[in-house]
Amino acid sequence: METIKFIHCADLHLDSPFVGLNTLPNKIYEQVKESTFRAFSKVVDLAIEFSVDFVIIAGDLYDGEDRSIRAQLFLKKELERLEKQGIHAFIVHGNHDHLGGKWTKVNMPSNTHIFPPKAKMIPFTTKTGGKIHLYGYSYPSKHVYEKIVERYEKVDGADYHIGILHGHDSLDNRHYRYAPFQVTDLLDKDFDYWALGHIHKTRILHENPYIVYPGNIQGRNPKEDGPKGCYVVEMNPYRTSVTFHETNVILWDAIELTDEETFEQFDQLYNRLIRLKERMRRKKKSVILDISLSKKQLSSSLIELVESEELLDLLREGEEKELPFVWVRSLSFSDENSMSIFLNENHEFFRELNESLHQLDNFERPLAPLFSHRVAKKYIQPFTKEEEMEIKGKVQQLFSRYFSTKG
Amino acid sequence: MKIKELTIYGYGKFELFSLKNLGSLQVIYGPNEAGKSTILSFIQSILFGFPLKNSQESRFEPKSHSKYGGQLVIELDDHQIARIERVKGRATGDVTVTLENGVIGGEELLKEILGGLDRHLFQGIYSFNIHGLQNVHKLKGENLNRFLFSTGTIGTDQLMELENTLEKEMEKRFKKAGTKPELNRKLNELKEIETQLKRSQEQIDHYDRLVTSRDEMEKKLYDLRMQLKQIDEQLIRMKEWNRMYPLLVEKQQLLQDLSKLKEVRFPKDGRRRFEQLELEKLSVEKRIASFTERKNQLNQEIKQLNIENAFIENEGKLNWLIEDLPNYQSLVDQKMKIEQDLEQLIDEEQQLASKLDLGCPVNEVERFDLSFAVKDTILDLMSRKEFLKKQRKELDQQDEIIRFKLKEKKRELNDLVKKKLPDEEITKLKRILENEGERQLLEKEKRWIINQLDELEHTPFQNVNGNFRMPKVIGIFLMMVFAITSLLFNYYEMAIAFFSSTIIMILFFFGMGKRESKGKSTSNLPLKNRLEQVENKLKEKTSYPFDPYQAKMLLEKDSDIEKRIELERMNVRLLEDQFEQITIANEKWEYDWNRIEKELKQIGDLFYLKPNISQQHLPESFDLLEKIKNIQMEKKRLTEQRRHLDEMLESREEQIEELKKQMSIQGTSYHERVLYLKQKMAAVKEQYRKRKELVDQKEELNKELNSLKEELRLIDEKEAQLFKEANSDSADSFLAMEEKAKRRAHYLEKIQLIEKQIEISGISVESLQPLSKPFTESAFLEMEEKKKELKSEIDRLEQQRASINYEILQIEQGGIYSDLLQKFHQAKYEFAEMAKAWSVYATAYYCLRQSMEKYKAEKLPKILQKASEYFRILTEGSYSTIHLDRKKDVLYVQRADGLIFSPDELSQATGEQLYVSIRFALAKTLNERKKYPLLIDDGFVHFDERRLKQMMLVLKDLAKEQQIFFFTCHKSLLSFFNQEAIIHLP
Fold first, then answer.
1. Dist CA B65 CA B10 (whole Å)
2. pLDDT averaged over chain B?
3. What's the angle, vertex CA B231, arms to CA B226 and CA B235, rounded to 5?
4. Rounded Cα–Cα distance for residues B248 and B830 (Å)
5. For tag attachment on chain A, is the N or C end more exposed, with fewer CB atoms within 10 Å?
6. What CATH number does domain B119-155+859-968 carry, 3.30.450.20, 3.40.50.300, 3.30.1330.10, 3.30.470.20?
7. Domain A4-246, CATH 3.40.50.20 — does that match?
């Protein structure tokens, strides 16, 4: 039996819009927009560098079912690059890029194998004679409720069997819309490797055989922070080795300055933050950075600077000329919400105020003016529980600030 | 709580200032600049902290000294006493709270005691000053109402402000039907982008169609191009045909000629092979001829050789003899040598025998026993003989010596005896000596006596004491000295002592001398008698004539001689002994010598030797005998060898004789004969060899000849075959065929050339079919026309395609769609953020209103009731109640006559009263929980007497429940209070 090598990536979300970034300078904005494309190019570079036999893309290649022409053409070009090197590509479509959408068909090159919306096995022989059977399934629509994995049937006659599945490993009912499965289901199939997709955080569910979520290839918001990439997998009859390779061109990161550092002067704080930025820059990747610190660390004048975002502007100055750039997305206080508000409990009115705020559960009434607005309600969604808590906290802050700083 | 004591360390102008025993209604009176505001501020500072540096309130930091801060002693509601002390430290100062029960704490404890009351709230509810009243004047209408309402709730207008602010913020962000607020604007933006997005989407659909039409166009272009290509090809073909036509004709002709030539068969290189074969044949034949000749020659030569056989037959023997010749020679030599040796040996033998003078024939020696034992015996005897010889000599020597010595000695002895003195002589001499001796003795005695006499007479005191004289003198002298000295020093007793001792000593010494001289004179007499005797004896002695000295000498000499005689006599005796010894030895020697001689002779007899020889020279004889024996043994050996040699020589000679029978052998001596044989042998061998050679050669030749013949045959065969290939049986017909073949080849070549050309041109034609005619001019023209048409069509289509491509490119490249998508999502996000911000205000507003409603519904009525009470008092009953309009959130008052007024309709003073009532009512109501002191700074300056009085009533009422501090600079007000309750500030 031969050794085979392949790349496993997923959740490309090409052409995914980036939100949460206001007022980016143009240059940076362009880079951010292009980041998912660049990241996928890197994946293809890796494939060529390691001379892999094939590449697996486990779903969510595009962001919405109205996939842009540009994204598709880009994908086609990259696949052609692979074709030139004799590397094949095996693709399943997931919930975001499901086959039920309305989209323009762009023909992919001959080395590309796209799985249909029905569990299928595609055989493949490598240049060195290794025989592989790949099993996959593309989403026909946005939600797939059944346990699709049960339809995967092993067909003998190959050295290696690899399963490709875009879905969610969970017993949790809330996630039953995305081809749910459990690890035991996968193990029962007796495959040599499971190439999963859908979860953006890199996770290895099982070793021997490997069941892997490679995560997405480029973070798109602060929650998708840290390095992102794909796996290079090498399999021989005795051993499988998986190596993670970073492909993200922009890194989302968050740093909290520890409580031990206090700042009296502006220079102190400014230089510290500049040093922080430069340290991030040394990673040789562009970074979008959230910095937080505690109010206790600063003198009141400095707190003012932070809140007015003056300091933030300073930190952002000149970044559009830098490469790689370090863009400070926010400079905030971590203890904003944890400050103890002390409205005089003894005063009847304040007690009442606290009570009413505390007990507020249904935000519909207070927010009605906006959320029931005919036009507005098309564009916003009701707040999540977290957001509601956030609002409550802010209100409390507002009250306390108001009633304590006056006079 | 109540403030009982107040102590200022340093605050404003106060330094170490304290006020004690503060009461429930405490008036503090002082002119302007007395420090009322200072104390007011102080109290608040201690309770709530020093104002921060950047706050609007003054910190009252003393300028002339450094002490800052102070303490309050308060009584809590549960009657516990607490001390609150605050001094400079952190921004708000360092506070220490000490409770009665010993608990000590800081800020936390203070907060607990105060129940969370802060400065702001305190000021709002419990602190009354001018500002509050001023507000009443400032606000009008709606605002006033709200202000009062707000006042009634928390004591200040904060609520109103807050409500306003929140509303403003909300509206800033969003208005239901507005356009300016940011959310509204964002909404518009979103709508815009969405439409753009949709449009872009449409374009994308359009894309599909564009792509299809482009593909179609591509296909069409392709077809047209194909057609064009075909026409071009056709044209080329036609041209070619025309060009090739003449050649084709020629070809046909050639083919015809070719068919005329009938069967032509000619092998390749036929001619060349033929010629080659002929050449070969010729050379082979030549060689055969020469070899045959040679063969005949050889036969001749062989015949001529003549060989003697006998030699051949006996070759072996002959060879052996020939080779053996040197051997033979050496054998002969050896024999000769042996004979020489033998002769020599015999001579020797003879010599030795004669030497020995043997008494037997010399051959007998062989049998003698000449073993080592015998030899040893002989040697032993000889050595013993030698020894004896030596001994002889020694003995003789000794003999001689002794004889000589003896003679000498005897002679000596005689001499000595002669020399000796006779005995009488000796006695004489002896007597002389005796005499002398005596004489000397007498002399000696005489001398001594004389001496003694001398001594006894002539020795005075001096001689005897001579020795002791000096010390004695010194001693006496010293004594004298001491005596004198002691006298000089007036030691009279001592002087006397010394002096007396001196005298004693002198006397003593003197007496001693005298005594001695007396003794001496008595001993003289015996001595003198002796002397006389001695002298007489002496006289007798000196009469002898003889010199004693001489006599002594002679005696001595004689005694010497005596001794020597004795000695010599002994010597002689010794010598005679020795002589005796020698004689004995001699005898023994004789005996030994004779024995040895006898033995030697005996042995000599065994060997038949003459006795004198055996006795003198036995060992040498023995050696000689040995030699003779050896010689004889050698002789034997040599003889044997000679016999052996003779045998060998004989055998060889016999062989020659044998051979002589068979062949003629020349020569007389063995040597000569053998040499002759050798020569002959060589010659014969030579012949033999020669013949063999020739025979071999002949064989060779035969072989060669055979192979050549075979070759010849083969060549003939090959030729025959060659002819067959050309279908001929002779050389002539063969050559004729060759001619034909040549011609044929020529034709073919030409045809080939033509065909090549045809091939190049690409035209295909059947060889023998009739040819179609070449193309005409018009045909060409027609084709060209067609071409032109197609080209133009192609151009047109290409243009169309280019434009479509451009459109497609636009769509593909134009990230317009993705840009818009991005923008759209971004806008949505921003909208959401803004919505969040708005929501905060909206929620706050909602909560605030809710609380307010609740408060209004529940709490406010109570306050208003109380306020009404105060209002009534203050207005002396002019007004009865204060009401709340729930719907409008405003207050209004009811006059005693029942008329309703809104606050802004009241006069200024009444408005103030209303304000004050509400505030007091609020303070009172709140005090139900916890009590705090009211701090009232003189602000009621506008009130007239009556009103003031009413005010005081109210204050007194309030003071029942809580402590009130009343700061004033108006003397006139003092009269309303008890004197004890007033503190005058200095």
1. 8
2. 81
3. 145
4. 89
5. N
6. 3.40.50.300
7. no
pLDDT higher at B548 or A370: A370
Q: What percent of chain A has pLDDT over 90?
A: 34
pLDDT for B464 equals: 46
pLDDT digits 0-9 by tens, B394-406: 889 888 988 898 8
Positive or negative torsion for Cα B161, B164, B166, B168: negative
Nearest to A33 among B201, B822, B829 (CB): B822
**Which strands form A203-206's sheet, in the order they lie side by side?**
A120-125, A131-136, A160-166, A193-197, A210-213, A203-206
CB of B183 within 8 Å of a chain A CB? The answer is yes
> What SS3 class is residue B711?
helix
* Average pLDDT, integer, range A8-36: 83
The rounded distance, in Å, linking the Cα atoms of B55 and B52 is 5
Say yes or no for a CB contact (<8 Å) between B817 and A69. Answer: yes
Distance (Å) from the C-alpha of residue B238 to the closest C-alpha of chain A? 43
CA of A374 vs chain B CAs: smallest distance (Å):
10
The tens digit of pLDDT for each residue in B204-240 reads 777 778 888 888 889 999 999 999 998 888 888 778 7
Residue B677: which of B306, B304, B308 has the closest Cα? B308
B1-116 CATH, one of 3.75.10.10, 3.40.50.300, 3.40.50.1220, 3.30.70.20? 3.40.50.300
How confident is residue A89, by pLDDT bands cut at 50, 70 and 90?
Answer: very high
Given a cut of 80, whether residue A405 has pLDDT beyond it is no
Residue A233 pLDDT greater than 50, yes or no:
yes
The answer to whether A71 contacts B190, with C-beta atoms less than 8 Å apart, is no
Q: Sort out which chain B residues have CB atoms less than 8 A from A390's CB and list them.
A: 836
Domain ranges of chain A: 4-246, 250-333, 348-405
**Chain B CA closest to residue A300:** B54
Is the pLDDT reported for residue B523 higher than 80? no
| Residue of chain B with shortest Cα separation from A104 | B208
Chain A residues touching B57 at Cβ < 8 A: 407
Answer yes or no: do B847 and A342 touch at CB < 8 A: no
Would you list the domain boundaries of chain B? 1-116, 119-155+859-968, 270-313+670-725, 315-368+610-662
Q: Which of A21, A355, A399 sits opposite B844 (nearest CB)?
A: A399
Q: What are phi and psi of B513, to 5 degrees?
A: -65, -40
